[in-house]
Structures are given as structure tokens and as C-alpha cells.
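Two quick folds needed for the group meeting slides. Do the first one here.
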Amino acid sequence: MRFVFFGVGAIGGGMAARLALSGHDVIGIARGAQLDAIRESGLRVRTPESDDIARFPCVGSPDEISFRTDDVIFLTMKTQDTKSALESLEKCGIRQQPVVCAQNGIENERLALRLFENVYGAVVMMPADYIKPGEVVINCGPKLGVFNIGRYPEGSDSMAEAICRALDAAGFAGFPEADVMPGKYGKLLMNLSNVLDAAAGDAARKSQLAEAAREEAEAVLKAAGISVTKGFRHDDLMQITPVPGIQRTGSSSQQSLVRKSGSIETNYLNGEIVLLGRLHGVPVPVNAFLCDLGRRLVAEGVEPGSLSVEQLQRDFEKAGKA
């Protein structure tokens, strides 16, 4: 079994590095400064208990890989980049290989199933940072991440079990899951405050706007008849744990702003609630406002964490009166 990581950022980089260090065959697909750094010096992965350099092949495009029948392909890019990534894999002749969506949101699996038969969903609990090219920081312990993995739309099999065993051996905790999507919706509820964290820092996660976004989403999911669970947490196995000498950056959305990546995943987090709300006749003013906020953060180049919760609340109230 060879693991192919399409996207070698915080999640993909951390997983690839730890799997490579534990002796698994790994190849990465990266871009820009991250690709250059990995090719030149390997990928440094820092955890609360270790600091290692992982070396594994890394390419800039899937067409540089001679894919094998025993490849397991992990999608670890942001959702806004998934469609083009899947199309590039299709052009490379990928057909039966497992495609694992280790990403936030629930759109990725639907996109993948249009093209590939063996699609797996993964609920990812792994607080990791990628800010500096060539370095990933995993901010948790004792396990370095928890993954619930199952076939999409449902079912488990020997492949899910084998992937989880490999993750276990690399310092993570993997759980085969016959019904993975309720957990992905549960994780979606957690991620609705990512854009608030990006705009106004960690305190915004506990704000009135954050709570209103979750309540709105719960009403939408109920109206849509969608099952939700929080059973993926496994807090006994993994807690946020500081890495010596490193200050954690924040959510994946905040990291996108820090790196000035030019995009943010809000339309596939809060935007999923907006879509479902509009489909099922449930008002979604809070999540619609947060989608607008995400677009504003990118378009105006807003400094991460520079806005206040009070200002955001006023902006929301003003938008409601407009």
C-alpha cells in the first residue's frame, strides 16, 4: 500500500510525514514554496513530544506520478481546490484506487463520487498548523490526530480497516466507521466559526454570532432530515497540547489568511448551511453574513484576527436592516 497525499499542508503534510517516519511508502503532491522546501530538505514535523525531518518523494502535479493499483489517495486540499484536483486525477487514469476525503465540509465526497467508485469520507480531528514552507506543527496529544473513516455514502470494509491500522502505527488513532457522514456534519457544526476565528481571533468562537450560526445550522439540518453526531471526538485520546516554542496560529481559515493563499473555505462550510437552508425553506441570515465576511477578508486583505467581535456584531445587525 502506498499513500498519495494530494495537498501537503497542515493535515496532509502532518499525515504524510508521520506515515513516512513509521516506514510507510508515501508520495506527496504539493506546490510553490512547500514543494521546493520538501524536495530540498524534507518536511519538518513538530509535535509536543518530537521534532523530526521526514523525507519522501514530492511532485508538483499528479501526471508526474506512475500510479499503482495499491495506491490510497488522500485529498487534503481545501474544498475550493477539490474539483480541479479530482479532474487531474481522472486524467491520470485513476479509476478503482481508494480516494479518501480528509477535508472539512461535506461537498468533497459528492464531487469525488461523480468520478470515482471507491470514495471514503474521513472525519479529521487534528489541530495542525502550516505557516512556514517545509514545516508542519501538530498541536495535540497523546494521539497526533483522530480519524473516523468509512465508505461514502456509507459502509466500512477491509480497506478502511487497513488505512486505520496504518494511522495507528504512525501515532494517530484511526476508527473504521460504517456511517461516517453524521460525524462529518458534526464536524461541520464545529467549523462554522472558522471564519470568525480568522476575522477576530479565538475569542470569536464563543461569540453570540458563533452560537447563532450553530443554532441556525442545527435547525437547517433538522429540516433537511440529516443525522448529526459528535461521537467522533474521542477527547480521551487527543487534546490540544502546546508544542514547545510555538504559538498556535488558529483555524484552517485563519491559516489561509496568514499565508495569503488568496482563497478561504467559508463557502463550503457556512455556505453548505446556506445552500441547505435555501433548499428547505429555512432562513439563514447568520451563515449568509459569515459567507460574505469570508469573501471580504480575502478581497480586502484583512489582517487575520484584526477585527473585533463587537464590530462584527454591528456589521451583522446593519446588514439585516439593509
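Then this one, please, same format:
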Amino acid sequence: MKVGFIGLGRMGQGMAGRLLAAGHDLLVYDQKEENLRVLHAAGAAIADSIATVCHERQVVISMLPHDAALEAVVNGTGGLADSMSVETAHMAMGTHSVDQINATNQSHADAGQIFIAAPVLGRPDLAASGELSIVPAGPAAAVDSFQPLYDAMSKQTFRVGEQPQSSAAVKIANNFLLGSVIENMGEAFSLVRKLGVEPELFFEVMMKGLFGAPAFKIYGPMIAEQKWDSHGATAVIGLKDADLVVAAAESAEMSVPSVHIWRGHLLKAIERGEGHLDWAVMAREQFRNSGLE
């Protein structure tokens, strides 16, 4: 398929690489020249503008870090709304707010264009190995037509309907649960450490007894061993996810009290200059609050 790709950060690099490896015709655009070099060396063509990346493409994928970037790419002068043909679809695969996804959908609808929201579940290392999960929502025929792209980038696809906001809701709720798991593990590890139990022993009990899910397998050792180097979402990205949970809850006119706990811990970590560390560092704040650091 002829694919345009905007946004070649850590996730975008891995995803675009998978598309190239699967034999798709890839045209890429990013504001950072160093992000383009790797993909160009692997066989991708480089576009010099958003308008150019839309040229004769069946789909333009955006993998952008926040709402402001998506808004600029879509509605800025020479952006996707100005530049895409009605035969080209825009697939937004970053993590964005429900309100921004709805606004983006409306911009494309006003231009007679196709829009699919398809956020991914997983970490950058999983993107590079094609082990992500993808949650697309949009016009059914369009969503179905891009299955070869999902297959190249992911291990599984969860279609959640024709309203793009549905995929944003699933992604935000998934991150809310994951953040809550990390926060709760930080509290549990703090408790056993305060009472003289080696955290590695508690991790073994946890995994062989109560739990065996990927979140525990990934974040449990990080918390037990206090290794906070980022191989996935940083504390800054985690804070964005927490803010999206708060905004989504406000839109739904409901309360999710636990998000404020891990959001507060992330804010404190960022204030300490630890925003570049893995968002599991929220557990370190619990350790500090417990007098362990």
C-alpha cells in the first residue's frame, strides 16, 4: 500500500520500520532531520512538507505526541485538511483526547475526507518487533481496508466501532488502568519493604500467586529493583495520559479519584527532574513518602 507517515519519534520509528519490512511504499515526514535518516536508509522516501507526504497516498498515518501537534498537522496552513484528496484517509495513531479526536474528525468531515482513529497499545520496543495492539475506529469499509497495515505493525486488532472517539476512550481507559496498577504496586512494594521483606521475594509471590499479566511482569521488576530508566512511556508522557483521563472523566461527568494519586506522584517526580525516567518512577515517589528514600 502507498502510505504517508508523519511523526517519527520512538514509537513512530518502530511502526514505520515494520511497514517498510512488510513491503509497503512509505513516504515519511518529520520536523527532526535525524529522525528521517534512519527510515531513509531503510528505504523510505522523504517528504519535505505535510502537503508532499499526502501525494498519491492511500493513507497518511500520524503518530504525534500530543493534541497540539495533531491540531497543527491537520488544520495548520498546508496541513492534512488542506492537502489530502478525498481518496486518502488520515489514520491518527497517537494518544489524544476525546475532544481532539472529535475535532479532527469534524475537520476531515468538513473537507469530505476519511478519518480513522487507531491508537496503539504497547511500548516502543514492542513497536519495533510488531507486537503492538491497535484499536481502530472509523468508517467500517475504510477500517477494514487497512488490515494489511495493522498486520505489519501489530499482533492483534480491536475494532471498536465507527465513531473515532470510541478508540480514544479505549486507549485512555487502558492507560488509566495501567497507571493505577503501577501506583498500586508502588504502594504494595513500599509496604513490604517497610516491614523488612526483600522486594524481589514479594515479586515472586505476586507473580506465582495472584498475578501473571504483562503489566506486572514489566513493571514489577522495575519497581522491585528500583530501575527507572525509560524503555517505554516517560513520566512526562504518563502525566499526559493522566491529564487525558481527567479530561475524559469530566466529559463523562464522572469521578475517577485514584487517577489524582498517580498524577500527583508523576508531577512530583517531574519537579525533581525525573520526567525523562520511565513513568514507573511514580512508585519511587511512594517509596519516598514511605521514608524509604
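Slide caption for protein two: The mean pLDDT is 94.
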